[in-house]
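In response to the reviewer comment on reproducibility (Comment 2.3), we provide here a single inverse folding case reported in full, input and output, so that an independent group could reproduce the run without further information from us. The structure tokens appear first.
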């Protein structure tokens, strides 16, 4: 007679080698914990509600005659650019969102680069290359000002560099226009194509009066221009169109200018990056032009190179503040370098704002509020207390109802907590994840999701025992049924978290992200820890014999002996009468 188990397929779920799964999750835990300590990121990054930070209110200001520019499309574009600027600095969990029709609220958490982000977020970053019509030192320069602009621009030709292929700085040459030269002559002599535009019409008998009036107005603005403070410099030429001449100051307030119409602007810059000049070791900002921008740059530098000083200078103006104003001696194209007294930080700041483009609107800082972490800390404290109470109630319920099985559930919760904490700590510097109050709520909700998976599996095992099976086959037969239920339940939770993450903004995304992460970890823990541990404990006498405190006592579960394993159909032998 064949052996009872010969040819029989192994039970579903497999009892084979549960140690492999446990070894795999143990290796993962050691790697995550080790990576956390090696990278010195032992705590998750905190959001503005927990760490404190700065809240900035910006109000959109329309250009003269362009009040209709303040619309939803431009406001959304401004929000997108501000977010990219802040993210480009590596600031975690900065929030940028509109409020009303013309306000933008920016919340910047306290931490690395947060001050740089505050300075950049509302900067319009309109970049223009303008010819210099007039330049002269200010009467009362700022104390830290030098006798020349703080930086110089060194445009490099697209071909092989040569001595005549670079713009030379203006230091060492007399500032200002030659003595006795009228501003109207400078406007007419300007090599820019803008001379034929309505703002600077070509000289003619009927237009000479208009030219003189425009020149007189510019001269009056130039004479009254105050470059002594940063606030005054920021207002120089305010409201002037890019197609009109304007007045401007340099960054230090040491020199002021009358500039011609813009010939190249920031949209013509394809790429900007901060690099180190290999010749002198100084930081510079390198810009590459688009094809159209390169042609424009070649045109303006070609015309400027034919002029005499100071009309062979062009100014690189950012938000109407002159970053540098070098002279030009030859036609240039392809790319340009802005160099000078840059540190790594200031060079990267300038490259960052140029890379992500100019804001479509001008914004004025309405208010700056420092957000303390006190309120968030109190709420976090209350939330953690609520979480601890909830966890304690779950454990009490598990111990009272499942008894010995509660040990498996508690160990699984500990493993899940370790994985969640280490991953959150590593995701901070990795993708900028920051833990905020909604994220903490998501982690607390996950306790219930994880406990629910254990309960599903335990109840399936109990159902098998009620049907008369012993523990070891009950564990394996219950697993496929419980596995399907767990996967479907977790899939629904993960789908809800994904949809919530996609359709929401701000802090609600923190809740959705944490909920999705812990749902995925629930699957990992149940498959690689809970099930293997249950398989191993089913071989122990305490659980296998159905001890009253194991939570698997057949009598308490309503199973009627004999168990199905011992049920056999036997029949007494029947004597067949023999024929005589």
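Designed residues, in position order:
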């Amino acid at each position: 007679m064949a052996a009872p188990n010969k040819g029989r397929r192994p039970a579903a779920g497999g009892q084979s080698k549960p140690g492999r799964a446990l070894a795999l999750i143990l290796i993962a835990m050691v790697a995550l914990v080790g990576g956390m300590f090696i990278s010195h990121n032992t705590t998750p990054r905190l959001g503005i509600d927990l760490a404190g930070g700065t809240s900035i209110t910006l109000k959109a200001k329309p250009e003269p005659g362009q009040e209709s520019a303040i619309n939803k499309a431009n406001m959304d574009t401004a929000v997108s650019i501000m977010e990219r600027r802040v993210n480009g600095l590596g600031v975690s969990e900065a929030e940028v969102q509109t409020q009303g029709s013309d306000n933008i609220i920016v919340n910047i958490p306290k931490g690395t680069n947060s001050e740089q982000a505050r300075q950049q977020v509302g900067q319009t970053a309109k970049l223009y290359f303008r010819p210099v019509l007039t330049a002269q030192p200010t009467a009362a320069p700022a104390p830290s000002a030098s006798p020349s602009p703080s930086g110089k621009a060194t445009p490099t030709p697209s071909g092989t560099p040569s001595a005549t292929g670079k713009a030379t700085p203006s230091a060492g040459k007399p500032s200002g226009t030659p003595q006795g030269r009228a501003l109207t002559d400078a406007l007419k002599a300007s090599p820019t194509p803008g001379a034929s535009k309505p703002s600077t019409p070509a000289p003619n008998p009927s237009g000479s009066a208009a030219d003189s009036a425009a020149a007189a107005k510019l001269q009056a603005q130039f004479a009254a221009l105050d470059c002594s403070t940063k606030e005054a410099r920021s207002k120089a030429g305010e409201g002037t169109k890019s197609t009109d001449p304007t007045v401007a100051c340099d960054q230090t307030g040491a020199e002021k200018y009358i500039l011609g119409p813009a010939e190249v602007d920031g949209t013509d810059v394809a790429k900007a990056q901060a690099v180190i000049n290999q010749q002198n070791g100084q930081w510079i900002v390198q810009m590459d032009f688009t094809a159209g921008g390169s042609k424009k740059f070649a045109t303006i530098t070609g015309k400027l190179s034919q002029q005499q000083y100071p009309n062979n200078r062009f100014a690189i103006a950012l938000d109407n503040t002159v970053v540098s104003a070098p002279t030009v001696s030859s036609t240039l194209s392809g790319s340009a370098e802005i160099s000078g007294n840059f540190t790594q930080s200031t060079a990267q700041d300038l490259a960052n704002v140029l890379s992500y483009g100019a804001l479509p609107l001008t914004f004025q800082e309405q208010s700056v509020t420092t957000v303390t972490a006190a309120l968030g800390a109190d709420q976090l404290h209350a939330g953690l207390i609520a979480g601890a109470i909830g966890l304690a109630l779950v454990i009490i319920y598990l111990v009272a109802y499942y008894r010995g099985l509660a040990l498996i559930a508690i160990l699984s919760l500990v493993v899940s907590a370790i994985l969640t904490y280490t991953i959150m700590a590593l995701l901070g510097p990795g993708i900028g994840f920051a833990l905020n109050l909604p994220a903490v709520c998501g982690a607390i909700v996950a306790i219930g999701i994880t406990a629910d998976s254990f309960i599903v599996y335990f109840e399936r095992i109990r159902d098998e025992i009620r049907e008369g099976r012993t523990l070891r086959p009950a564990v394996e037969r219950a697993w496929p049924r419980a596995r399907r239920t767990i996967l479907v339940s977790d899939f629904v939770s993960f789908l809800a978290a994904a949809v919530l993450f996609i359709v929401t903004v701000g802090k609600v995304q923190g809740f959705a992200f944490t909920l999705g992460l812990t749902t995925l970890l629930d699957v990992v823990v149940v498959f690689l820890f809970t099930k293997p541990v249950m398989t191993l404990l089913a071989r122990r006498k305490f659980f296998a014999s159905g001890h009253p405190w194991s939570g698997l006592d057949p009598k308490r579960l309503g199973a009627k002996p004999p168990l199905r394993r011992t049920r056999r159909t036997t029949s007494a032998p029947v004597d067949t009468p023999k024929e005589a």
